[in-house]
Design goal:
By secondary structure, the protein is mainly alpha-helical. The protein has 34 helices and no strands.
Length: 595
């Protein structure tokens, strides 16, 4: 029995070792593809088996094939081995086992099986092809060529075999045989661009330029109405030191079809090769204005012009004028406008200059996420939330899966006092959440839902949202702080509030807001001495600018018995914003009053 540990590694026994083949089929009916024979052996290899032995063989072979299709490769391989034991001349079992051994990196054993299978059934296409592919994978080109030559002889109507053989001849630099094989293929299939261009390249490698040119010339004569072949012939001349012959052909094409895009573009290369810069630039403009030039070609020309500009005059105004003229024309897509914007970004041009280009992009492709997001960032940079909302609102229609647009739209509504709209936007956003969504962003969505719900008096909904936020990001500091503070204001779940608040202080020990929240929770729990430590830290780190923190400071000092200091803090807070409604009563009665 073969190595069981190796069996367990089998996952895709066929095909992994063989990048040179388009595919290798797992054949349940091995050999039946070409000869129509039964699943069992042919009469030649089966004649030694008794009727009972043949039935056993058939059963085990079918069962092995079934297990293989279920990807139980170890069991399948064991049964194929059993088939070979029943009939040592079974080419089908050899073929199947060879594939397993190739995957198990036992190439010699696989090779021996394949050779034997081919000897037993020389007319089986798949056995011989796999043997040839094996040689090719080992870069044993002479043996691979021998096998493929036999395949071509036996299966002359399969063009893919001829092409594979041509590739093998090329690997060996056997150009004479490449030409002979291409001639045979051309005789069978007729003249074609692919065959002629292959012959052209091979003749050039053989340094037989005249024969190379004759190939393209014959292609042009074969299809006189297809000017593309004439341009190809001109290109062949241009690339092989016959520029004047090339120019003559290009001009003939343009005499027949003045706006022929291929010929016009070929003249760019011609002028460039001869160093005629002025004529080349004029030709570039002619090509760019030609409606028959496809968009990709036009983009490539502009990219090349940008590169040339960067290496010479770096005149951005000239490039921008070019973009202006091109973008005035009707666009089949937004690629040219996006290229213009990318150029402006590279040149660090202002938002005011690049904004109209992005608007042009969206007028062509309103679903363009990158352009819309770039416009959004422009609005955010100048804190123009009304403009940000105008950018985001259409995005919910064109890009409903993009969470960022919901988030910024919600923020924009919040900043412009449209709180209900903001809440509904964030709620719509979380409906788009998938397993691939950024967990941090999703947590921020729920954070905003919580904050807005609490502000609007829906405290329980707020706490549910905060809990969801912490599921997606347990370390969302903003949520931990707000959640903890709101619980403390209600004098509920103070242990939970303390635990959450302490995480924020630990994460940002100099944040006056987080220090104040923690101090206030300790105050609510009656731990006034500890509360004073944290409120003092809050005051040192900017808290003296906050009416809430200063008032809390007074409350804590009062409960520690320092009534005079507490009164000072309360009076200080009275001149500030964000203080409690009962602060005047604290000052008047000179004592702490709970809300």
């Amino acid at each position: 029995m073969a190595n069981q540990r190796s069996y367990r590694t089998i996952r895709a026994v066929c095909s992994q070792w063989l990048g040179v083949m388009v595919c290798l089929f797992w054949l349940g009916l091995t050999g039946a593809c070409t000869s129509g024979r039964k699943l069992t052996l042919s009469k030649e290899t089966n004649s030694a088996l008794s009727y009972e032995q043949a039935r056993k063989y058939d059963y085990y072979f079918l069962e092995a094939t079934r297990l293989k299709q279920k990807e139980d490769y170890a069991a399948a391989m064991e049964l194929y081995e059993h088939c070979l034991a029943l009939n040592p001349r079974s080419a089908a079992a050899m073929y199947e086992l060879a594939q397993f051994y190739l995957y198990l990196e036992q190439p010699q054993r696989a090779h021996n099986l394949l050779q034997k299978a081919v000897e037993l059934e020389p007319d089986n296409f798949w056995y011989r092809q796999m043997l040839g592919a094996y040689y090719q994978s080992k870069q044993d080109y002479p043996n691979a060529i021998k096998v493929y030559e036999q395949l071509v002889e036996r299966f002359p109507n399969r063009s893919e075999l001829q092409m594979a053989l041509i590739d093998l001849y090329n690997y060996q630099k056997d150009y004479q045989n490449v030409i002979l094989a291409l001639d045979k293929l051309e005789l069978k299939e007729g003249k074609s661009e692919q065959i002629s261009m292959n012959k052209f390249r091979v003749y050039l490698q053989m340094n037989e330029k005249e024969k190379a040119f004759q190939e393209i010339e014959s292609l042009s004569k074969e299809y006189p109405n297809d000017l593309r072949y004439s341009v190809l012939l001109g290109d062949a001349y241009l690339n092989n030191e016959r520029p004047e012959d090339a120019y003559s052909i290009y001009q003939k094409v343009l005499d027949i079809e003045p706006d022929n895009a291929m010929a016009q573009m070929a003249l760019i290369s011609y002028y460039d090769q001869l160093g005629k810069d002025t004529l080349m630039r004029e030709q570039l403009q002619l090509v760019l204005d030609n409606p028959k030039v496809n968009n990709e070609a036009r983009l490539n020309i502009v990219r090349q012009m940008i590169m040339d500009s960067e290496q010479s005059d770096r005149d951005s105004t000239r490039i921008l004028r070019l973009f202006d003229r091109l973008l005035e024309k009707e666009q089949e897509n937004a690629d040219m406008a996006m290229l213009c914007y990318s150029y402006m970004q590279a040149k660090k041009m202002s938002d005011d200059l690049s904004r109209p280009v992005l608007e042009k992009v969206l007028s062509i492709e309103p679903e363009n996420t990158m352009a819309r997001y770039s416009l959004l960032m422009m609005a955010v940079r100048k804190n123009d939330y009304a403009e940000a909302a105008l950018v985001c609102e259409p995005a919910l229609l064109y890009n409903p899966e993009e969470l960022a647009f919901y988030y910024y739209l919600g923020i924009s509504y919040f900043q412009t006092d449209r709180r209900q709209d903001a809440l509904e936007t964030f709620q719509k956003g979380v409906q788009q959440v998938t397993e691939e969504s950024d967990k941090g962003l999703v947590s921020d969505f729920y954070s905003m839902i919580g904050d807005l719900s609490h502000t609007m008096g829906n405290k329980e909904e707020a706490y549910v949202a905060y809990d969801s936020a912490l599921v997606y990001n347990p370390n969302n500091i903003g949520v931990l702080n707000n959640y903890a503070y709101f619980l403390s204001l209600e004098h509920r779940d103070l242990d939970k509030a303390e635990e959450m608040s302490f995480k924020t202080v630990k994460a940002e020990p100099k944040n006056d807001t987080y220090l104040d929240t923690y101090a206030w929770i300790l105050f609510e729990k009656g731990r006034y001495t500890e509360a004073r430590i944290y409120i003092d830290e809050a005051m040192k780190n900017g808290g003296e600018q906050s009416g809430t923190i200063v008032e809390h400071c007074g409350d804590i000092y009062y409960m520690l018995g320092d009534k005079e200091k507490a009164l000072e803090f309360w009076k200080q807070a009275e001149e500030m914003e964000d203080v409690s409604n009962i602060l005047p009563q604290k000052i008047k009665q000179q004592k702490y009053i709970a809300e």
